[in-house]
Amino acid sequence: MGESLALNIESRGYKVAVFNRTTEKITKFINGRGKGKNFIGCYSIENLLNQLKKPRKVMIMVEAGFAIDSIITKMLPILNKGDVIIDGGNSNYKDTIRRTKFIEEKGLFFIGTGISGGEKGALRGACIMIGGSKKAWTLVKKIFQDISAKINDITPCCDWIGENGAGHFVKMVHNGIEYGDMQIISEAFHIMKNIIGLNYNEMHLLFKKWNNEELKSYLIEITSKILTFKDNDGEYLLNKILDIAGQKGTGKWTVINALNLGIPLPLIAESVFARNLSNYKKERVQASKVLKGPDINIEIEKDVYIDDLKKAVYMAKIISYAQGFALMKEASKKYNWNLDFGNIASIWRNGCIIRSSFLIKVKEAYDKNPKLPNLLLDPFFKEIVIKNQSGLRKIISIAILLGIPIPAISSALSYYDGYRTENLPANLLQAQRDYFGAHKYKRIDRAEDNYFHTDWTGKDYNE
């Protein structure tokens, strides 16, 4: 990522000084991909910083955590007031909040930058979410918008998101939604293969068709291509890939922060847990031999079921985004970030992994109503989910009857039904909590700020 970003920046007419603690990598880069270009190879941090024009703008691209703090500690004695330190990795937003405060107290600026698009995006144009010192944004705005992806080759997919950790928080939620999108698509693939009985070429054509309709997105596009990719022996490569999913932690961070902020995020949580479950391969193989599923045959109308599946995927996708934006809304209130959700949706429209035509409608929803409580309540999305819920319900029903696991898609319906239900059984839950723990409860026939406790047994709790 760092090397690709450096090449991208240089290609826009900037002179770039580069450093890596493994000095061989610098020599290899200067004599390889960077040969003949406007790069300065540096073999120490001091050398790197002395090559930069003041106010200096130095970008760190290393593994999140201790490594970033270590580099900052080494740079601070050399840097001057007004210089800008930029963290372009997947840092935890709380670390960014801490670093921003620490560095600003010393008269410098700190920017926490979320970057999405992978190595290719870094080289050709990424989605860039800037957080941290707003004053520093004016110093780096042109550089970052020059190297970012563009909407219709004009509008940069890069902007200042908010103070301190806002950029990294939004990038974290982006990754959480990415987990949800990927799991939804994978479950749709599982259904196509094991319920509808489509072969890889048929699935390829179906995903290709979807990518020309309302589900048009980068992940749908690459899925269609993956399905027809063959190994050197002519066999489908997908059949040879072990079904154990990896992860780097940002999906888990999204779920943890949702729990801490009290925001229901079941679809994204199930997507993280699905990856965890996939790692129990040996146990799953053993369980498959002894734990039997349903013994049932169901005749389905192929074309009808494919149409229902498309509705299910679309509705699940909407719900995944609704959960992600609800989480950002709550964080924005807690940290006083004043996030512009329409702008965030616009930034995500190109360059990033979750880029899709769908985000145009998300932007319109929040531009029209910046205080929208939940994406499901926007008139456009409300009509879509009401219309598509029948397909989602049919898909889930048949998948459950046939024993096909669809944790993300099924959680989408549970969230939708829970969110639209006026009276949930949480009153019984509160009674239980009061019974065994005297946790108290509110009453519908009393003032909302009053709490009550009942002696449910008429006896001492210690008996």
Topology:
Blueprint: H1 2-11, E1 16-19, H2 23-31, E2 39-42, H3 45-50, E3 57-60, H4 66-75, E4 84-87, H5 93-104, E5 109-116, H6 118-124, E6 127-132, H7 134-147, E7 150-151, E8 155-156, E9 158-162, H8 166-196, H9 200-210, H10 218-226, H11 250-261, H12 266-278, H13 281-290, H14 302-335, H15 341-347, H16 358-368, H17 379-402, H18 407-419, H19 426-437
What are the low-pLDDT stretches, counting only 5+ consecutive residues below 50? none
Tell me, rounded to a whole number, the average pLDDT: 94
Distance between the termini: 64 Å
Radius of gyration: 25 Å
Describe it.
This protein has 463 residues and is α/β, with parallel strands linked by helices. It is built from 19 helices and nine strands. The strands form three sheets. Strands 3-4-5-6-9 form a five-stranded mixed β-sheet, sandwiched between helices. β3, α4 and β4 form a beta-alpha-beta unit. The longest helix is centred in the C-terminal third of the chain and has 34 residues. The chain is globular, with a radius of gyration of 25 Å. The N and C termini lie far apart (64 Å). The mean pLDDT is 94.
